[in-house]
Specification:
By secondary structure, the protein is mainly β. The chain contains no helices and 13 strands.
C-alpha cells in the first residue's frame, strides 16, 4: 500500500474501509466500514454528540433551554461531560444538572443540584464538569437493561438547574460519548 495525499475530496460509490494489519501474522481486520451513505456500519465504534446552548435560568429552577441530543438506535452512552462555554452569574447559590429520557428527567445522570457550583456566584469559562452515569443493579437475580442503551432512536434531555436567580445566563455544552453496538 502506498500513502497518497489528495488536494480535493476523495469519493467512492462503494464506501470506505479502515483496516488494521497485524505486524506479526499479517492478518487484516476491518476496523471501520462505511456504506455509500458514509454511515459507519460496524460494531463498537465510539462517537461524540453534543447538546449546546443550555443556559442557567434567570429565576431559580430548570434551564429555559434544556438541551436535546438524539441518541441513535443500538448505542450505549458511555460518558457525559459538561463544558462551560460562557460564565453564568448568579446570587450566592448552586448550579447543578441532570440528564434523562424526559425533560427534567434524571434517568441517565442523576440530579446533582450543586456539582457545577456549590454556594458560589459564577462558573469559570471553560470549566469541565465530569458526570457519573446512573448504574443498574449488577447483582440481582435478573439484571435489568441499562438505561444508557437504546434499541431505537430517542431524545436525551440535558438540563442545568440553579437554586437562585441568575443575572447572566451563561451557556453550557453537554458532550456525550456513545458506542455503536450493532
Amino acid at each position: 500500500m502506498a500513502n497518497t495525499t489528495f488536494s480535493g475530496p476523495v469519493r467512492s460509490e462503494g464506501g470506505f474501509q479502515v483496516v488494521y494489519k497485524n505486524a506479526t501474522t499479517g492478518a487484516i481486520t476491518t476496523v471501520a466500514n462505511t456504506a455509500s451513505t458514509g454511515i459507519v456500519t460496524n460494531k463498537y465504534v465510539k462517537h461524540v454528540g453534543f447538546a449546546t446552548g443550555v443556559t442557567v435560568n434567570t429565576t431559580a429552577g430548570d434551564s429555559p433551554t434544556i438541551g436535546e441530543f438524539t441518541q441513535p438506535a443500538d448505542t450505549i452512552i458511555t460518558d457525559i461531560k459538561i463544558f462551560c462555554d460562557t460564565s453564568p452569574v448568579i446570587g450566592t447559590g448552586d448550579i447543578g444538572y441532570e440528564v434523562g429520557t424526559s425533560s427534567s428527567g434524571a434517568q441517565i445522570v442523576a440530579a446533582q443540584t450543586d456539582e457545577i457550583l456549590d454556594g458560589g456566584t459564577t462558573v469559570v469559562e471553560h470549566n469541565v464538569t465530569v458526570t457519573a452515569l446512573v448504574l443498574q443493579t449488577q447483582d440481582g437475580t435478573t439484571a435489568p437493561a441499562s438505561v444508557q442503551y437504546t434499541s431505537a432512536e430517542r431524545t436525551i434531555y440535558c438540563n442545568i438547574t440553579n437554586t437562585v436567580d441568575a443575572t447572566t445566563a451563561g451557556s453550557f455544552t453537554f458532550i456525550i460519548e456513545y458506542v455503536q453496538i450493532a
